[in-house]
Amino acid sequence: MSSIPEIRKTAEHKMQQSLEALKASLAKIRTGRANPQILDTVHVDYYGSMLPLSQVANLSLLDSRTIGVSPWEKGLGAKIEKAIRESDLGLNPQSQGDLIRVPIPPMTEERRRELTKVVKHEGENAKVAIRNLRRDANEHVKKLLKDKLVSEDDERRAQDDVQKLTDRMIVEVDKLVAAKDQDIMAV
Protein backbone atom coordinates (compact mmCIF):
# COMPACT_ATOMS: atom_id res chain seq x y z
CA MET A 1 0.00 0.00 0.00
CA SER A 2 1.34 3.44 -0.85
CA SER A 3 1.83 6.31 1.58
CA ILE A 4 0.48 9.86 1.40
CA PRO A 5 3.80 11.34 0.11
CA GLU A 6 3.88 8.67 -2.62
CA ILE A 7 0.27 9.41 -3.61
CA ARG A 8 1.06 13.15 -3.79
CA LYS A 9 4.24 12.57 -5.76
CA THR A 10 2.42 10.34 -8.27
CA ALA A 11 -0.40 12.88 -8.63
CA GLU A 12 2.09 15.71 -9.17
CA HIS A 13 4.03 13.68 -11.75
CA LYS A 14 0.88 12.81 -13.71
CA MET A 15 -0.39 16.41 -13.54
CA GLN A 16 2.98 17.57 -14.86
CA GLN A 17 2.59 15.10 -17.74
CA SER A 18 -0.84 16.61 -18.49
CA LEU A 19 0.79 20.05 -18.64
CA GLU A 20 3.49 18.75 -21.00
CA ALA A 21 0.82 17.19 -23.23
CA LEU A 22 -1.00 20.54 -23.32
CA LYS A 23 2.24 22.35 -24.25
CA ALA A 24 2.82 19.86 -27.06
CA SER A 25 -0.69 20.20 -28.47
CA LEU A 26 -0.57 24.01 -28.22
CA ALA A 27 2.76 24.03 -30.07
CA LYS A 28 1.07 22.36 -33.04
CA ILE A 29 -1.60 25.05 -33.28
CA ARG A 30 -0.60 27.51 -35.94
CA THR A 31 -0.05 31.16 -35.17
CA GLY A 32 0.77 33.83 -37.74
CA ARG A 33 4.46 32.97 -37.48
CA ALA A 34 6.18 29.98 -39.03
CA ASN A 35 6.99 27.10 -36.68
CA PRO A 36 8.47 23.81 -37.99
CA GLN A 37 6.41 21.90 -35.37
CA ILE A 38 3.23 22.46 -37.37
CA LEU A 39 4.62 19.96 -39.89
CA ASP A 40 4.88 17.24 -37.18
CA THR A 41 1.63 15.68 -38.38
CA VAL A 42 2.84 15.35 -42.01
CA HIS A 43 3.93 11.81 -42.99
CA VAL A 44 5.83 10.91 -46.18
CA ASP A 45 5.81 7.64 -48.10
CA TYR A 46 9.40 6.41 -47.77
CA TYR A 47 9.88 3.08 -49.59
CA GLY A 48 6.43 1.86 -48.52
CA SER A 49 6.57 3.15 -44.92
CA MET A 50 4.81 6.29 -43.78
CA LEU A 51 7.44 8.27 -41.85
CA PRO A 52 7.14 11.63 -40.10
CA LEU A 53 8.56 14.46 -42.19
CA SER A 54 11.25 15.14 -39.56
CA GLN A 55 12.71 11.64 -40.21
CA VAL A 56 13.26 12.17 -43.94
CA ALA A 57 14.16 15.86 -44.09
CA ASN A 58 15.75 18.70 -42.20
CA LEU A 59 13.24 21.37 -41.11
CA SER A 60 14.37 24.95 -40.55
CA LEU A 61 13.02 28.48 -40.35
CA LEU A 62 14.02 30.56 -43.36
CA ASP A 63 12.27 33.67 -41.98
CA SER A 64 9.32 34.47 -39.71
CA ARG A 65 6.80 33.33 -42.33
CA THR A 66 8.65 30.54 -44.18
CA ILE A 67 9.69 27.02 -43.22
CA GLY A 68 12.50 25.37 -45.19
CA VAL A 69 12.42 21.61 -45.81
CA SER A 70 15.64 19.96 -47.03
CA PRO A 71 15.10 16.30 -48.03
CA TRP A 72 17.91 13.95 -47.03
CA GLU A 73 17.59 12.03 -50.31
CA LYS A 74 17.33 13.51 -53.80
CA GLY A 75 14.19 11.65 -54.94
CA LEU A 76 12.06 12.60 -51.94
CA GLY A 77 11.40 16.25 -52.84
CA ALA A 78 8.28 15.62 -54.91
CA LYS A 79 6.84 13.16 -52.33
CA ILE A 80 7.45 15.62 -49.48
CA GLU A 81 5.89 18.47 -51.46
CA LYS A 82 2.84 16.32 -52.21
CA ALA A 83 2.50 15.19 -48.57
CA ILE A 84 2.58 18.80 -47.30
CA ARG A 85 0.11 19.96 -49.95
CA GLU A 86 -2.30 17.09 -49.16
CA SER A 87 -2.11 17.57 -45.39
CA ASP A 88 -5.02 19.41 -43.79
CA LEU A 89 -2.75 22.35 -42.91
CA GLY A 90 -3.69 24.45 -45.95
CA LEU A 91 -0.06 25.02 -46.96
CA ASN A 92 1.32 25.39 -50.49
CA PRO A 93 4.99 24.30 -50.67
CA GLN A 94 7.27 25.49 -53.49
CA SER A 95 10.30 23.59 -54.64
CA GLN A 96 13.58 25.43 -55.28
CA GLY A 97 16.17 22.87 -56.29
CA ASP A 98 17.02 20.82 -53.20
CA LEU A 99 15.04 23.10 -50.88
CA ILE A 100 11.28 23.13 -50.42
CA ARG A 101 9.96 26.49 -49.18
CA VAL A 102 6.71 26.35 -47.19
CA PRO A 103 5.28 29.88 -46.87
CA ILE A 104 2.86 30.31 -43.96
CA PRO A 105 -0.08 32.41 -45.16
CA PRO A 106 -1.22 35.26 -42.91
CA MET A 107 -4.27 34.33 -40.88
CA THR A 108 -7.68 35.92 -41.24
CA GLU A 109 -9.50 37.37 -38.24
CA GLU A 110 -12.08 34.57 -38.48
CA ARG A 111 -9.38 31.88 -38.48
CA ARG A 112 -7.75 33.49 -35.43
CA ARG A 113 -11.07 33.35 -33.54
CA GLU A 114 -11.52 29.68 -34.49
CA LEU A 115 -8.03 28.88 -33.24
CA THR A 116 -8.61 30.64 -29.90
CA LYS A 117 -11.64 28.35 -29.44
CA VAL A 118 -9.45 25.33 -30.18
CA VAL A 119 -6.86 26.57 -27.67
CA LYS A 120 -9.51 27.07 -24.96
CA HIS A 121 -10.85 23.58 -25.66
CA GLU A 122 -7.36 22.08 -25.29
CA GLY A 123 -6.99 23.99 -22.01
CA GLU A 124 -10.32 22.64 -20.73
CA ASN A 125 -9.27 19.09 -21.62
CA ALA A 126 -6.05 19.55 -19.62
CA LYS A 127 -8.01 20.91 -16.64
CA VAL A 128 -10.39 17.93 -16.74
CA ALA A 129 -7.40 15.55 -16.80
CA ILE A 130 -5.83 17.34 -13.80
CA ARG A 131 -9.10 17.28 -11.85
CA ASN A 132 -9.48 13.56 -12.56
CA LEU A 133 -5.97 13.03 -11.17
CA ARG A 134 -6.97 15.01 -8.06
CA ARG A 135 -10.01 12.77 -7.62
CA ASP A 136 -7.88 9.63 -7.99
CA ALA A 137 -5.34 10.88 -5.43
CA ASN A 138 -8.13 11.76 -2.96
CA GLU A 139 -9.70 8.32 -3.40
CA HIS A 140 -6.35 6.68 -2.59
CA VAL A 141 -6.04 8.81 0.55
CA LYS A 142 -9.63 7.94 1.60
CA LYS A 143 -8.81 4.27 1.14
CA LEU A 144 -5.79 4.67 3.46
CA LEU A 145 -8.12 6.24 6.05
CA LYS A 146 -10.69 3.46 5.62
CA ASP A 147 -7.97 0.84 6.10
CA LYS A 148 -6.92 2.81 9.24
CA LEU A 149 -3.41 3.41 7.89
CA VAL A 150 -3.66 7.19 8.40
CA SER A 151 -5.51 9.47 10.84
CA GLU A 152 -8.40 11.75 9.80
CA ASP A 153 -6.11 14.78 10.30
CA ASP A 154 -3.52 13.26 7.94
CA GLU A 155 -6.25 12.52 5.41
CA ARG A 156 -7.58 16.11 5.59
CA ARG A 157 -4.05 17.54 5.29
CA ALA A 158 -3.30 15.29 2.32
CA GLN A 159 -6.51 16.36 0.55
CA ASP A 160 -5.69 20.03 1.17
CA ASP A 161 -2.21 19.42 -0.20
CA VAL A 162 -3.57 17.73 -3.34
CA GLN A 163 -6.06 20.61 -3.77
CA LYS A 164 -3.24 23.18 -3.58
CA LEU A 165 -1.28 21.17 -6.15
CA THR A 166 -4.36 21.02 -8.41
CA ASP A 167 -4.96 24.78 -8.08
CA ARG A 168 -1.32 25.45 -8.99
CA MET A 169 -1.55 23.23 -12.09
CA ILE A 170 -4.85 24.84 -13.19
CA VAL A 171 -3.23 28.30 -12.93
CA GLU A 172 -0.36 26.97 -15.08
CA VAL A 173 -2.87 25.72 -17.70
CA ASP A 174 -4.59 29.13 -17.71
CA LYS A 175 -1.22 30.84 -18.23
CA LEU A 176 -0.36 28.57 -21.19
CA VAL A 177 -3.78 29.12 -22.78
CA ALA A 178 -3.62 32.90 -22.29
CA ALA A 179 -0.11 33.07 -23.78
CA LYS A 180 -1.16 31.02 -26.83
CA ASP A 181 -4.32 33.15 -27.28
CA GLN A 182 -2.19 36.29 -27.23
CA ASP A 183 0.19 34.69 -29.73
CA ILE A 184 -2.67 33.85 -32.10
CA MET A 185 -4.37 37.25 -31.87
CA ALA A 186 -1.10 39.17 -32.41
CA VAL A 187 -1.15 40.36 -36.01
TrEMBL record:
CDD domains (alphabetical): RRF (cd00520)
Keyword Cytoplasm: yes
Keywords recorded for this protein, A-Z: Cytoplasm, Protein biosynthesis
Pfam families documented for this protein: RRF
Gene3D superfamilies: 3.30.1360.40, Ribosome-recycling factor
Listed InterPro entries: Ribosome_recyc_fac, Ribosome_recyc_fac_dom, RRF_sf
Residue stretches spanning the membrane: none
Protein location: Cytoplasm
Domain of life: Bacteria
Residue ranges of every copy of the Ribosome recycling factor domain listed in the record: 22-185
UniProt record similarity statement: Belongs to the RRF family.
Xref: HAMAP family: RRF
Its biological purpose: Responsible for the release of ribosomes from messenger RNA at the termination of protein biosynthesis. May increase the efficiency of translation by recycling ribosomes from one round of translation to another.
Name of this chain's protein: Ribosome-recycling factor
Taxonomic path: Bacteria, Pseudomonadati, Pseudomonadota, Betaproteobacteria, Burkholderiales
